[in-house]
## 1
Amino acid sequence: MSNDVTLLAIESSCDETAAAVVRNGREVLSDIISSQIDIHTLYGGVVPEIASRKHVEAVVPCVEQALREAGVTLSGLDGVAVTCGPGLVGALLVGVSFAKAFAYSAGLPLVGVHHIDGHISACYIEEPSLEPPFLCLVASGGHSHLVRVADYGVYEILGQTRDDAAGEAFDKVARALGLGYPGGPAVDRAAREGNDTAYAFPQAKISEGGYDFSFSGLKSAVLNELNRQRMAGEDPRVSDIAASFQRAVVEVLTEHLLAAAEETGIRTLAIAGGVASNSCLRERLETACAERGLTFIRPRPVLCTDNAAMIGAAGYYAYLRGVRSDLALNAEPNLSLGTRERRYHAR
Ligand code: KG4
Ligand code: ZN
């Protein structure tokens, strides 16, 4: 009998409906992502109620396609992994309800997965030889965490944002600059044409907070500069502002990650989450790690933004640890990274 573990994974925490089939946590047999960007673009951001309705429409076709492309039938699956939090409650509920019904009817075990556990686990797919311990910077639309990955699914949070998440700051600045939604990729593009030293925006340093982040002061400084230019009747220098803002974010994220490497002596660094697809952050860390002889893991962009393959990777290691969720599994919009094992471990 084979020891392979093949999981169907489902992700619906925000504005992507995603389904994947992943074998042994690292081999992605299929990875289907149905994006809702077009509809949310009309409103300049994610509208939760619309997101939930779109997930309802997309979840069955996504799962069907994931199974078809993987060439796997129900009998070839060993379990179902699903994001159960954090995220938009209505959006999460669609994936969780579907996964419960699917697992129950197919007689398969169910594994609830923390979304950030998923983002970090994307690194295992990108680099098949990667093993803990390593340091991971997780920067997305909802989170900015600096994490010491002590073991599979065992995380020590060294620092986190005190206010806006890094991706949220990108989205808000992009909106003010008229660059649209989603903001991160738009700022990334605009910044390529700009001078990143045109403005000395503040890089928030929190003296007593160790590795904590704060992006709201930077965001306000950008908005104030933009208003000043408009009040003075000037045409806003969009690409210079975008480039200078991006540099300030990238510097803070990079400095924190490198300082944590220095302090902990851990020589493998990784990035994860939507902001990890930022071209400037990737280049800056690539260079810094090469200079210091550190190993640097940067999942390809499609594994940084929301996807289900990463949930299949995290779900696999949870499955091996014996984590099983029952039909009481619920969507938990504020689920914190430390509570999952305690709450979802099977009795
Ligand atoms: O991980 P993700 O897809 O969803 C959440 O879990 O939040 O991250 C989405 C966030 C958005 O804020 C988006 O603007 C940002 O990641 N993002 C980027 C880039 N691509 C996506 N930020 C900066 N540069 C990018 N290239
Ligand atoms: Zn995410």
## 2
Amino acid sequence: MGKLKIAVQKSGRLHDDSVGLLQECGIDLRNVKDRLRTESDDFPLEVFFLRDDDIPQYVEDGVADVGIVGENVLQEKGRTVEVVQALGFGKCRLSLAAPRSEVWEGPASLRGRRIATSYPRIVGAYLQRQGIEAEIHEISGSVEIAPGIGLADVVADLVSSGGTLFMNGLREVETILQSQAVLIRYQGMTAEGQALLESLLFRIRAVKRAKRNKYVLLNAPNERLGEVIALLPGMKSPTVLPLAESGWSSVHSVLSEEEFWERIEQLKTAGAQGILVIPIEKMVL
Ligand code: PRT
Ligand code: ZN
């Protein structure tokens, strides 16, 4: 039987989360350090470790069936691949930043200026959308020092905490692109490859769903069960079991992260006690 070939970053910010996701999907990978490729014993998967910049092309060409890469790299490379799933890690944004002393009056302030960036294609498209002419200086690293050494007036670079910009006397002034890691696929996959991808996606979605949800157990007095149950949707509906002490029940359910704190407070107000919250490892609907 064939194997699904996946390209992931060899080392860098996406490596650990990419390998970690596969492992959470129950796919054991041996020798991930300093290797160019490895296979799994318990899932028909072959992993290629590459520079993130090369991943879109490998997937466009079908050398790898799928890949994990940041949307920023994907857009910059402009390769023809299909995005099948956002993965929720590697979040950052591509932003314009100007020296803190500079008065910023919106994108129009870019007119005729020099912009240093490693993302000439995305920045070029942005300037075109804004109808602004400016000079793009492509540099491959340490973009944030360009204004300080007189190489450019502003920069367009990836930002997560903003610490790097701050330390270089720069201020984020416009966001061009929001980015996260995504799973991409080769458009000409065989039927067998697609079936393998479906089973990988099934696992990825179960892992992601589990992360967004918590298992909740609590005790409630029987006369207030109705109120408590109304607050807990559960996967179908909550499980209710009698406690040894008469007049009380134990209620089990699932709550999503977004509504979690608000619901816990409401549950307490509705008479719930001894609330336990437990992480869920996998969640299949
Ligand atoms: O060797 P290879 O080419 O594979 O790796 P790389 O050096 O090109 O990329 P790497 O490992 O640095 O980043 C891989 C991907 O992680 C990027 O393409 C983004 O999709 C994502 N990502 C998420 C980030 C950041 N957050 C990030 N903060 N990539 C880079 N940064 C850098 C940024 O360029 C700047 O220098 O971190 C600095 C800013 O961070 P803050 O926290 O100070 O704002
Ligand atoms: Zn790179």
